[in-house]
Amino acid sequence: MVDEEENNFSRVLDEITVFFKQKGPNIQLQDIFDSRDLMKQIAEKDQTIRILDRQGDQVLEIRGENESAFYIPFQPVRERAVTLIESEGKQMLIGRSPIRSSQFNGYIEMIQPLSRYEKIMKNLFWMMTITGVLALLISAIIGYFMARSFVRPLNKLSETMRSIERKGFHERVEIVKAHDEISDLSQIFNKMMSEIENSFQQQQQFVEDASHELRTPIQVLEGHLALLNRWGKKDPSILEESLQVSLEELERVKRLIGELLELSRADREKFDLQTARANPQKVVDKVIRDFKFLHQEHTFLCLDELDYEAMVVIMPRHLEQIMIILLDNAVKYSDKHSNIEIKLVNRDEDVMIEVKDEGIGIPEDDLPKVFDRFYRVDKARSREKGGYGLGLAIASKLIQNYNGDILALRNEPAGTIIRISLKYAH
């Protein structure tokens, strides 16, 4: 902006200089006085024009509107010169140009304070200051509301945590329909709380079921020990019967504790999926041979539909344990001389192993529950066969640890199908 003022100032000075040059070499002082009106028209309202003689004394002054007089020390010049100076605390442009003729020698001096420039800069400063303050204020208000919007879900999360401490795991955070980190955090928290609640309920159910299962054999033992204490010392038949029953109940307790420990081990054990490898054909063949020898009253049919020999992600001992559980259940809940079918099939991403029996089957509504701890279709028959409903829970946990799937289906017209899927080992 200063450059623009200087260019405009130089233009006016040049116009006056050219005007006097056009008067010719014989310009007189009277000609200068006669040019007063013309110079007023050329000069702008904030400019002062002075005509000085050779000694710097003022001959003529044309002062702009509302312009006060300025004292500027005289400096002779050989050619047109424009400078920016500061005088009396104000910036101003000073321009001088020589006048040479046979009748008059002197100088044209122009003065223009940069008051307009300073006023614009002052206004600009205040405008920027006010704009900055307003922007800061608006930013603070927006930041406050944004901070509130961010903090509100966190406060709700904190309140929910305190509520969980007081009321239990069923409390959940209200999900705000926004795709941001806070919404994701709330969803993750709710999912985590659902898993914790489910785990806690399963643990409670597990303890209740374990207590219930242990209560019966303990009551039987207690009753027979009381009977022995009262009558068995003198009656050999009572002694023999009570000891036999007590040993059977102790064996049941031993099996139950063993299955509980096995389930707990499956919950805790960590597996290296990079090194876990098993050949499903070899493991299944071995288990079938063992069961054919132990349960000759059943017919075991192996349908090996594998197109090629494949390795799956699981430790061989765990796959063997799973197959023993599945075939043992098939034998327990099937009549003698029934068929038990085992099928192996290649699929795109995994190997499917299917165990199909012709037993009592599972009600449609109970199919999702078969992998719960202590679930039994026929409790009387399970107790008679020595089962506690933990086998499929152990198998399911082992399968999950290897990122596999296990599914229970009805086998029409009678029986059950247990289908497991294990990923290929690469």
TrEMBL record:
Residues 209-426 form the Histidine kinase domain. Keywords: ATP-binding, Cell membrane, Kinase, Membrane, Nucleotide-binding, Phosphoprotein, Transferase, Transmembrane, Transmembrane helix, Two-component regulatory system. The chain crosses the membrane at residues 124-147. Its EC number is 2.7.13.3. Residues 148-201 form the HAMP domain. CDD domains: HAMP, HATPase, HisKA. Gene3D superfamilies: 1.10.287.130, 6.10.340.10, Histidine kinase-like ATPase, C-terminal domain. This is Signal transduction histidine-protein kinase ArlS. It comes from Rossellomorea aquimaris.
